[in-house]
Design brief:
The chain has 2 domains: 198 residues, Sandwich (Jelly Rolls), CATH 2.60.120; 137 residues, Sandwich (Jelly Rolls). 4% of the residues lie in helices and 37% in strands. It has 3 helices and 28 strands. The longest helix is centred in the last third of the chain and has 9 residues. The termini are far apart.
Length: 429
């Protein structure tokens, strides 16, 4: 059955899985509709400015507070799933690139398949992010997850995900993204081996960037973001709820499903977005503008124009320009970059950057096209052409991406990555 969604970004939505479960006007002084429990979840401080205030009212079968104490999970967290501060190993200035991490052969769900590649800041100070890879070949059934450390942006690369959250169901496939607000409980279903990227954003929630001189149209539009409609599990029996809190995984035993929200209204909701709906802006004259024109969502840092994290994509698009070098120029950027590839070939690298792979180019470390790409672009006929069958993305941040001990020791780390810039000949006329 095809799922239904509500369209818009930042809207105050309302939805009920059972007619009459939502209150009309304010709640009754003594009883919520249909005898449900009223509960508010706040994603911002109570006194945040109205335009930035995030909250939602839930109407539930049981209060969320009704569960056993949390108990620490095993040592796996310290080994693979990390949270800032990322100081377990020294961060090298080297340009870094990884091949795709393999999907485990033994049964592995979304939680057990998470591994941290890099990060910055820490959740306690609400700065920076953690970047993880998920690998899963088994659905979560009586197991659920939520993180108090940050909101989670999932970028599937292989296999579709069926996400059942407190607010309803979302299906997301490669080429789409889904964002789950901080603290929201959910479970992930898979039909085939699946892999993808996760940004656990410790900072301000993602929002649409300002458009400035672009005007009212272009980039991502509010109407193309989709929120779920209410759906709930009325299920009793033992289940496990895993909580990520200050970098550690804790588990609590419930006697019922935590996805027991019959109705809700508010603007603190999960959402999905089809990246094919992004309206790319590009040059029609000469040279090419900065990659910031490809920003889908941004997490502001408090410093105007400087992001805690920008989510930037490089989708299929027309390249139309005169008398100019088409791929990204060689550059050194005060902002740090972590890139992933969903499918296809990235236009700035001839080989070695594979779907499911990752690269890191940190603050002011020089990078750009490899020799083969440079030579091809320098002799190409300058006519309009379309970049097709590709989707790369970048999380860009004012903070450094500090690789984890696991990532620097992984066999997928390309030990000779920096040699892609060997072989450039001296040029001078």
């Amino acid at each position: 059955m095809k799922l239904k969604y509500q369209a818009g970004f930042g809207n105050t939505f309302m939805s009920e899985a059972v007619k009459g479960a939502l209150p009309v006007g304010q709640n009754s002084p003594q009883h919520a509709p249909r005898g449900l429990y009223a509960e508010v979840v706040s994603g911002s401080a109570f006194t945040a400015p109205r335009a930035e205030n995030l909250s939602a009212w839930l109407y539930k079968l049981r209060p969320s507070a009704m569960h056993a104490p949390c108990k620490a999970m095993g040592a796996r967290t310290a080994a693979l799933l990390r949270t800032g501060p990322f100081n377990e190993v020294k961060t090298p200035p080297n340009r870094l690139r990884w091949d795709p991490l393999p999907i485990p052969t033994k049964p592995t769900d979304f939680i057990d398949g998470l591994v941290t590649i890099a990060g910055s800041g820490d959740p306690e100070s609400h700065t920076g992010m953690g970047v993880h890879v998920y690998r899963a070949n088994r659905s979560m059934t009586d197991r659920y997850f939520h993180t108090a450390d940050g909101e989670m942006m999932l970028v599937p690369q292989l296999g579709a995900l069926a996400i059942f959250s407190e607010f309803g169901k979302l299906e997301v496939s490669p080429g789409e993204i889904v964002v789950l607000p901080r603290g929201m409980k959910f479970k992930v279903g898979v039909q085939r081996p699946s892999r993808g990227y996760v940004c656990e954003n410790y900072g301000a929630p993602f929002r649409l960037p300002e458009l400035g001189p672009i005007g009212s149209q272009g980039l991502a539009q509010k109407r193309d973001f989709l929120a779920p409609v209410a759906a709930f599990e009325d299920k009793s029996g033992k289940c496990e709820v895993v909580c990520k809190f200050l970098g550690n995984l804790w588990t609590a035993e419930y006697r019922h499903s935590p996805l027991d929200v019959v109705a809700w209204h508010g603007n603190y909701v999960p959402y999905k977005y089809d990246l094919a709906r992004f309206m790319a802006i590009n040059t029609v004259s000469f040279d090419h503008p900065d990659p910031s024109i490809f920003t889908v969502l941004t997490s502001p840092s408090g410093q105007p124009g400087v992001a805690n994290c920008d989510f930037v994509i490089f989708p299929p698009r027309w390249m139309v320009a005169e008398h100019t070098f088409r791929p990204p120029w060689f550059h050194r950027n005060v902002m740090s970059e972590l890139m992933g590839l969903v499918h296809g070939v990235y236009d700035a690298k001839a080989e070695g950057f594979l779907p499911g792979g990752i690269s890191i180019h940190n603050c002011l470390q020089a990078h750009g096209p490899d020799v083969a790409t440079f030579d091809k672009a320098s002799s190409a006929e300058l006519k309009p052409h379309k970049i097709e069958n590709t989707l790369a993305f970048m999380w860009e941040s004012k903070y450094l991406f500090r690789p984890t001990k696991f990532a620097l020791g992984a066999p997928q780390l390309q030990r000779n990555y920096e040699t892609v810039w060997d072989g450039f000949k001296k040029k001078f006329k």
